[in-house]
């Protein structure tokens, strides 16, 4: 008795099967259902077409398909790249403006939410703009020139510089924002409130200087600082600092910013008569001055107290204590950062640095 052998499945696949070609009507139906968010499985079931045929058809249309419902993305990879470039080059600074740009230049209508989601997927994040000094074209040119002229200075070179500056210290803490966490339904609690006092509670204006050996003398500025009061500080606190640390004046370099009272004729005449040199400092450059870091550190220590100072006299006492507590090690690290600050300024082409 002869028994017919079954067909070898592998041989069957190798020989191939002539799959029926899809008609244009079927292709149009697949396209229509796909745009209506039908999945491949649903399209196959609805049109009685094998899923493999549906996959192949969509692939020929350059459409990415999967087994879950979805519609064609409004933004292509090229569109997202265009959007990122618009933000990076500051041609558009908000998502709202970017949606208008896409509509006007590419004819793409996209919602803010969709565009924001695509930007997030591309690694872009919305952040609060940091407050930085305004840098004009002239400021930028001067900052870049300064950084380039000091790019080869070593840490030892920078240790010759005595940095100076003024700052304001509020009795009730920073003028900036403070944050706290609380539930939506929770009433306001003391921890969620930044208490204010009529008149602001008062503040101190401080002049100070730092050396590579330690902090210098500080002065409380009563009233408005003018060239006469500034000259008294140079003759007093600065001179005392030089004497205390036994700094060789002929090797020293004094840094001050370009405040009008610093460049007044009376002050300039006094500085010309001194043995030390005065550094030609670029305007709008607090990020290059390490004493700014000292001010921030000082304020953080003062505002860390459980209770605000009981008046300006007590606030001044706290300032003196915390200022004297700034270690030489801390200052050493700041001086060691100076070559990096110059390089950062050069890399940013004269714009702001992280310091």
Describe the structure concisely for a colleague:
This protein has 355 residues and is of the alpha/beta class.
Entry keywords:
single chain, 355 residues, alpha/beta, six-stranded mixed sheet, 45% helix, 8% strand, elongated, disordered N terminus
Reconstruct the topology from this structure:
Elements: H1 9-15, H2 24-35, H3 40-47, H4 51-60, H5 77-88, H6 95-106, H7 112-121, H8 137-149, H9 155-158, E1 161-170, E2 203-211, E3 214-215, E4 219-221, H10 227-244, E5 253-255, H11 265-272, E6 277-278, H12 291-303, H13 312-324, H14 328-336, H15 338-347
Helix pairs in contact: 3-4, 8-15, 12-13
Write up what this structure looks like:
By secondary structure, this protein is of the alpha/beta class. The protein has 15 helices and six strands. Strands 1, 2, 3, 4, 5 and 6 form a six-stranded mixed beta sheet that branches. It is elongated, with a radius of gyration of 34 Å. The chain starts with 8 loop residues before the first helix and ends in an 8-residue tail after the last helix.
Low-confidence stretches: 1-17
**How can the largest sheet be summarized?**
6 strands, mixed
- What's the gyration radius in Å? 34 Å
Number of helices: 15
Task: Tell me the β content.
Answer: 5-15%
Please identify the structural class as seen in this structure: alpha/beta
Shape: elongated
Tally of DSSP β-strands: 6
- Residue share in helices? 40-55%
Average predicted local confidence, pLDDT: 84
Q: Quote the distance from N terminus to C terminus.
A: 95 Å
Order of helices and strands: HHHHHHHHHEEEEHEHEHHHH
């Amino acid at each position: 008795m002869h028994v017919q052998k079954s067909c070898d499945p592998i041989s069957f696949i190798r020989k191939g099967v002539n799959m029926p070609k899809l008609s244009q009507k079927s292709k149009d139906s697949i396209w229509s259902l796909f745009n209506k968010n039908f999945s491949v499985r649903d399209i196959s079931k609805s049109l009685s077409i094998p899923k493999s045929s549906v996959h192949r058809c969509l692939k020929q249309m350059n459409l990415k398909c999967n087994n879950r419902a979805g519609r064609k993305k409004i933004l292509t990879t090229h569109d997202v790249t265009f959007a990122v470039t618009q933000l990076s080059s500051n041609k558009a600074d908000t998502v709202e403006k970017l949606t208008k740009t896409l509509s006007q230049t590419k004819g793409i209508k996209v919602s803010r939410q969709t565009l924001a989601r695509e930007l997030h997927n591309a690694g872009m994040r919305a952040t609060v703009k940091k407050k930085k000094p305004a840098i004009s074209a002239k400021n930028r040119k001067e900052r870049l020139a300064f950084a380039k002229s000091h790019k080869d200075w070593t840490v030892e070179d920078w240790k010759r510089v005595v940095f100076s500056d003024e700052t304001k210290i509020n009795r009730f803490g920073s003028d900036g924002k403070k944050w706290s966490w609380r539930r939506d339904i929770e009433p306001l609690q003391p921890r969620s409130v930044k208490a204010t006092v009529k008149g602001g509670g008062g503040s101190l204006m401080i002049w100070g200087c730092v050396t590579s050996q330690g902090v210098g003398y500080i002065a409380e500025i009563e009233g408005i600082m003018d060239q006469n009061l500034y000259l008294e500080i140079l003759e007093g606190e600065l001179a005392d600092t030089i004497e205390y640390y036994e700094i060789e004046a002929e090797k020293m370099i004094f840094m001050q910013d370009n405040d009008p009272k610093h460049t007044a004729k009376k002050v300039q005449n006094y500085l010309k008569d001194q043995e030390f040199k005065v550094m030609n400092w670029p305007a709008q450059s607090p990020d290059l001055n390490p004493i700014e870091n000292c001010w921030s550190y000082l304020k953080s220590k003062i505002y860390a107290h459980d209770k605000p100072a009981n008046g300006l006299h007590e606030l001044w006492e706290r300032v003196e204590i915390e200022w004297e507590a700034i270690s030489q090690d801390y200052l050493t690290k700041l001086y060691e950062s100076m070559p990096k600050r110059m390089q950062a300024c050069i890399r940013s082409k004269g714009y702001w640095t992280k310091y």
